[in-house]
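Why run this: before we spend reagent on co-expression, it is cheaper to look at a predicted model of the complex and decide which construct boundaries make sense. The entries below are exactly what would go into the expression plan.
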Amino acid sequence: MTRALPLPILALLLSGCATPTAPTTPQAPTAPQIKLAQDVTVLRNALPVALTALQAARSAGSIPADAVTVAESKVLVPLAQLGKTIDAELVSGHDWPTQKAAVLTVIAKAGISAAAANLPAQAQVILAAVLGSYNTIAASVGGPQLP
Amino acid sequence: MSPLLIALLPLIQQGIPEVVGLIKSLMGLKKKYPALTDEQIHAVVVAATAENEAGFDDLMARIAADQPKP
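The model came back. Tokens follow.
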């Protein structure tokens, strides 16, 4: 005569019989041109926020006026020009390898790193978001990122 | 390039909201149906970049106005 399995052991055995789930289709990767265009849009949205914050900090006396002048002219303006140049390349109709190489060249010439490194600490904090956007853009084309 | 895209391209570049919305819906389609053509990808990119130039120009104008005069 066979013995019935104790209830706890039966529950333990049944718990291992999970209901099979349907395999999910992995999400297709976004085309690199679309992702780069979206990244540039993020930069476009972040720049005026940084500008407003820098000017407010200057008014409050927490960042020297000349540091704000440098941040505007040596970081924000080059970033805006970089964004415009990248957008122009993205709508050029060139193939992606050509676009990627062109964007990489523009990034290398922008010279953002040196300018940002010499700013006061509080200015660098304010610029963190735009510099993060820059890094995202640089990463998407295999370019050097800011520390 | 498809006739539809040729017709849409000027509207996309003008940033017509309804057209931009149409193109954004294509972005969702890209994830669901990954075989978008190059023309479709180009249309999406044009839509995404349509508003950026004005934004960048506006920022540079604000900075130019804020910079100390020599």
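The radius of gyration of chain A is 26 Å. The first helix of chain A runs from residue 7 to 15. Bring this page to Monday's planning discussion.
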